[in-house]
Task: structure prediction
Amino acid sequence: MHLNKSYCVMKTIWNTKLYLSCLQSDSLLKFIDIKKFSTNCDNMDGSGDKKSFILSYEELLQAQKNNNVLIIDVREQKEINETGKLPGSIHIPMGTVANMLNLMDDQFKKQFEKSKPNKDSKIILSCKSGMRSAAVQQELQKLGYQNVYNYAGGWSEWENKQKC
Result:
């Protein structure tokens, strides 16, 4: 099987087992025989060597009650000014998250009024629709953070759920 990593497009040869990625519904699982499963393009071989967690709206609500969880909104400042950010979250723009996590503990706490996470701390990332936060999630995993979640619904889902 050939894989174009840039676009996550699989090209198969006849009679080749196809491993699916990024399934949106658990109900699909009962119809297909999945031997290996991956949720990101770098791990399409199904080796399972990277964790890739996606958080639902309900799980986010529970996490917001836990002071040991760090929620980071990675949108740009202009977006935050227009909409606000998720309750309990801190704002670190996408391009600066890794640098901010390299601050000394006291500097991080002074700037964000939250304790700096260690490599095992639970971190939840959010943006508008889950794309930028997924990219930051992958970056943090490569840096050794083991417990990084992506709130894939992002601000768009949060805002819609608040209106209901």
Notes: The longest helix spans residues 131-142. The radius of gyration is 17 Å.
